[in-house]
Design goal:
Length: 376
């Protein structure tokens, strides 16, 4: 008669339009939106147009909980956006919920995110009980990506600052950039959600193939084992990518609205890739926007990153060569290279299974010219 096993409820497959979840997904794309990433040029343009404060918040809050950016999931999922009475929630509803939480509760959410990243790494480290800075650094450093350890430590020891910066990032991105974009394309998103609803009735496997045009990746197959519900949500800016949140028992999958509707999102007032304001040109006619220059200068303001530039000035190197020559931890080198890449100072050229890093000399010249233009 075969083996007796404990049964599991059938996987519930549904669809939704959720402003809080869409906003969270958009910010993770915005964090990754650097030239050469293959992401929507609108995202790259918006990232360039962010104020200095918002750029810092974006990089910091996405850069301290592992490569899967766990922290930004935590406050949104704590809101329970897929709960029946919250599926029509607005950003104001989300921000009101954030304001109701204490700084300590935000730190608890951050610790949960960092613990998830430690489980991925297999470190078995846990959060310190007190405020010992050495212990906190030991806990934080393995999961940092683009965030600076000192900045993260400051938020952990002063969690009201973590709350303030999280709310500022959500509020700023929404009000300054994304609200108009979302409202402009809401009809297309609704059409995509209706298409998804029809696909969802065919079961998860068929729905995934139809909505994304892709085979199911192994990482997503593993996430299904912990899920009891899968929700498909249309996105206006994913392009050819697939994004998901594994937050047991919920699994949220974002798919490209354009893929299922055939529509193209126009950006008449948008920030297209490469769009530069008239007063932001350097002397020789090569564009260097103020925000680009500021991000580049921030990337250069570290001794180890300058040493990496010195190394690459003699020719391309693969990551392990840079680690060996710098004599610092591989995780630290990865963070430095990531920040230099995001600023456009270095490029990555994969070959024969290795990542070779190359100094973008034209970008370095543009930085110098951008500075000279402002002191003439």
């Amino acid at each position: 008669m075969g083996e007796l096993v404990v049964g599991r409820p059938a996987l519930q497959v549904r669809t939704a339009l959720s402003v809080p979840l869409d906003m969270m997904s958009m910010m993770s794309l915005l964090y990754r939106a650097v030239p050469g990433s293959g992401l929507d040029p609108w995202l790259i343009g918006v990232r360039r147009a962010l104020s200095w404060d918002l750029q810092e918040d974006l990089d910091l809050l996405h850069g301290f909980s592992g490569r899967l950016l766990y922290y930004m999931e935590e406050p949104v999922m704590a809101f329970q956006p897929l709960r029946e009475d919250r599926q029509d929630a607005t950003i104001d509803d989300l921000l009101t919920f954030f304001a109701s939480l204490s700084g300590i509760e935000f730190r608890d959410l951050a610790i949960r995110a960092i613990d998830r990243a430690h489980r991925d790494l297999g470190t078995e480290l846990s959060a310190p009980v007190g405020d010992d800075e050495t212990e906190w650094r030991r806990y934080l450093e393995p999961v940092l990506t683009t965030a600076d350890a000192n900045d993260v430590l400051e938020m952990m020891l002063n969690p009201e600052l973590l709350k303030e910066r999280t709310i500022r990032l959500f509020s700023g991105i929404w009000s300054e950039f994304y609200r108009e974009e979302y409202e402009t394309h809401l009809d297309s998103l609704r059409e995509a959600e209706q298409v998804a609803r029809n696909s969802a009735g065919k079961g998860f496997g068929m729905a995934f193939a139809e909505l994304t045009g892709n085979r199911l990746p192994a990482t997503l197959t593993a996430a299904l084992n912990a899920a009891s519900s899968v929700t498909f949500i249309p996105s206006g800016h994913l392009g050819d990518f697939v994004s998901y949140i594994s937050y047991p028992p919920e699994l949220v999958i974002f798919f490209s609205a354009q893929h299922v509707t055939g529509s193209q999102f126009e950006h008449e007032q948008g920030h297209a890739e490469g769009e530069i304001l008239p007063d932001e040109f350097v002397a020789n006619g090569q564009p260097m926007a103020t925000n680009d220059l500021m991000e580049s200068l921030r990337a250069l303001s570290d001794g180890n990153r300058m040493r990496i530039i010195d190394l690459l000035s003699t020719g391309e190197l693969y990551a392990q060569e840079i680690v060996g020559r710098l004599g610092i931890a591989q995780s630290a080198v990865s963070r430095h290279l990531s920040q230099l890449e995001r600023a456009g100072i270095v490029r990555v050229e994969p070959r024969r299974g290795l990542k070779y890093y190359v100094l973008d000399r034209q970008h370095m010249r543009s930085i110098a010219e951008g500075i000279l233009y402002r002191v003439q």
